[in-house]
Amino acid sequence: MSGLSIQNLSMRFDLPNGSSVQALKDVSLDLAQGELLSVLGPSGCGKTTLLNIVAGFLAPTDGKIILNGHEVRGPAAERGMVFQQGALFEWMNVRDNVSFGPRMAGKREKDYGANVDHLLEVVGLRDFKEKAVYELSGGMQQRVALARCLANDPDVILMDEPLGALDALTREKMQSLVLKLWKETGKTIILITHSVEEALLLGERLLVMAPRPGRIHREYRLPFADLGAGQDLRAVKKHPDFATTREEILGMIWDMEEEIMGRSETAGAAS
Ligand SMILES: Nc1ncnc2c1ncn2[C@@H]1O[C@H](COP(=O)(O)OP(=O)(O)O)[C@@H](O)[C@H]1O
Ligand SMILES: [Mg+2]
After folding, report:
1. Which member of 137, 154, 170, 264 lies 3.0 to 4.6 Å from 80 by CB, making a disulfide possible if both were Cys?
2. How many domains does the chain contain in total?
3. Where in the sequence is the domain holding 93, given as residue range(s)?
4. What is the pTM of this model?
5. How many CA atoms within 13 Å lie on the side-chain side of 117?
6. CA of 47 to the centre of ligand 1 (A)
7. What is the mean pLDDT of the chain?
8. Is the CB of 10 under 6 A from ligand 1?
9. CB distance 228 to 201 below 8 Å
10. Ligand 1 atom closest to residue 192's alpha carbon, by position in its atom list
């Protein structure tokens, strides 16, 4: 049985003062191998918590994650994470960063070397192998992070705002790279973003989450990721359904944020 199954997931954080936060409530979702899911939602709706549970960094209070027929019980190389920034090893050069996983798994240069060089080529870093991480721009560092994740050959790639710190032009190039890697590798990808446009461009499936408790509000199946894998992303944005869907989702998130503001104002007035 291949694929990722998120089953009735709930997560409650108990705080030291005796109160608790219901970060996720009864979240269920099935992803087939090779599907690309983007996740949107107001701050605090449980996106990072969801990703951390799939990664195995957190154990849920209820529910479970099944990957390829096995229950997830902790971190493993089959599930790779790409963080927003700052997760590279500053003291290693680019190639050593990318080959870190295979080396830690006890593999030898002759077994992983060709694949590492291939990945560096694919992400456009062929001429930067010997550079130190601090010599690279933010966009290039995220290319290293992607290649390092792929070098472990995970089944699932988890990305929490991976492009959030990049300038607009670099971000657009990286969005194309994510689509290219998705098509070439057939990996299952879950990508969290704050950008509605990015979620539309990259999500073959798109989840809008709602807060308090964190839950699935709406799910879309979209044609744009497939279109974008073969052409300029700016052309994709001109697709007539693109603007319509963007407006619909923006309205949805706007309403949720208004409601959150309203609630906190009421709470403030009551105290
Ligand atoms: N370790 C933690 N302890 C207590 N509360 C947490 C913890 N992690 C997250 N939360 C709370 O859970 C909710 C969801 O957080 P998070 O998953 O980070 O949301 P998002 O990534 O969508 O912004 C928030 O209310 C947050 O404050
Ligand atoms: Mg988050």
Report:
1. 154
2. 2
3. 79-153
4. 0.94
5. 6
6. 8
7. 93
8. no
9. yes
10. 21
